[in-house]
């Protein structure tokens, strides 16, 4: 599972950072999910190898424009490029209504079906290799986090034990490997005695805007990676006297440390933070504040940076 | 008056070209008008010196997304950057309804007033130095062209004639210069006898999508510049067997030649046309087809290219 950031800016785009969008790419390198779709997400996609034909589903965290205004254009372009495959969009209810109004008033006809499912249902949505569920967060409007949990893991079949137990290579091996118990020589062979998974299921939590990381304590328990906003440093938030429903670097880092989170991936930075560390304030202010409170592997997302979550649960920057 | 293109692609963005947007910039270099606002128009603006605080009005030609999906994000960013000044948007009625729905469903609050005026009224809208009127075109949805006519021209006062007529320098000169008749030595002095305008009023026509240039024959009569779509070459249009309501290079160029248009500025090119003339089909195919039918000064717009309409009526590319 790769995480490719299409936008890492809060509220407004900057010359270097677009507003929010994140592609989660399957092992194959083609099938992918999109979480949030700020304006010009489709423009960022032109600089990747991802195709709108391979997009499996879109998840929207909340109705604010910097997380959804790219949706009509992206879907229109998918249509113009000939997509026919239905597309699932999991989003707060307002998004479906807004999209319907957009279709009506701008005479947008799509050659594929769009199935809107309300995030508020808090279902578990199943895809080929991943299950996704959601959690309500705290922001100025209803905002959600999405948890992607791997369901199709590679099993390890203990062939030494099978051989030692006198079960020779054959269809039974395949059956056990698939998790199905088998009957052999008058005995029931339990799949779980011969199969195990060398690594826990991969699990990534991607959150919308949120000023109460504490809400994620249980939800993040199985996660190897948390992608969370870090709009300001605490100093800036204190000076403004209002967080506008956002988290500071200190707040989210303190939470991550308290749950011993394996990897913290910060994004959604206020436009005031310069990419150039020689200018002030810079994105390095966010990094140093977060690093002060969180001792685990810390990543600050950049537009078009791609991170890989290995089967081992390790997260690393992919350098091409 | 400068014309700065923010997008020159039809339908979908490409790596080099954004969807439609055009800034018309006043002599001062700061006050400006926007015609059409495709997705990521605000991103293009980050690469110019134009400020959303100096934007005088927005004109939308028609409701298709590649001409308007950038509107909510651009207005949201204007609000976040502290704009308080009301903004006039002249647009087909569907745009106002769509924007209202967008505000409602995405909880967008602006700290300034937006006054929507329907293009369908075909009024003349007056601004400090320009009057703007509109004309209905022919497309799959109602589409319009806007004509910008200079109203605040620099008058030339014939001081030689004034001196010869025994009227010496004084307040009367200023009065006549302003176009007001004056009383002097028992005689009425007509301003028009002493004042003239060395050049005709500048006039630019900017059109939305349109497959019948002929509709513009009278409207374009005073124009020095026509900005018009040229989505395909005729060969491509013929192959497709459907123009989808668009003009070919041959069609618009033939029309421009027939009215002896002073300057033809083409834009809104299908994504298939490559910027690199060594690839095929390239934008040069459009250029050579248009040049075959139109012998006047021909310009093919590029993203972020800036053209200047001089007081003389000459159009030229501004090289910085």
From TrEMBL, chains A, B:
Q: Which UniProt keywords apply?
A: Endonuclease, Hydrolase, Metal-binding, Nuclease, tRNA processing, Zinc
Q: Where does Zn(2+) 1 bind?
A: 62, 64, 139, 209
Transmembrane region(s): none
Classification from the root reads: Bacteria, Pseudomonadati, Pseudomonadota, Gammaproteobacteria, Pseudomonadales
EC numbers, comma separated: 3.1.26.11
Respond yes or no to whether keyword Methyltransferase is given for this record: no
Q: Could you say which protein family the record assigns here?
A: Belongs to the RNase Z family.
Record protein name field? Ribonuclease Z
Instruction: Output the Pfam families linked to this UniProt entry.
Output: Anti-Pycsar_Apyc1
Per the record, the domain of life is: Bacteria
Primary role:
Zinc phosphodiesterase, which displays some tRNA 3'-processing endonuclease activity. Probably involved in tRNA maturation, by removing a 3'-trailer from precursor tRNA.
How cofactor binds (record note)?
Answer: Binds 2 Zn(2+) ions.
Q: Where does Zn(2+) 2 bind?
A: 66-67, 209, 268
Entry keyword Metal-binding: yes
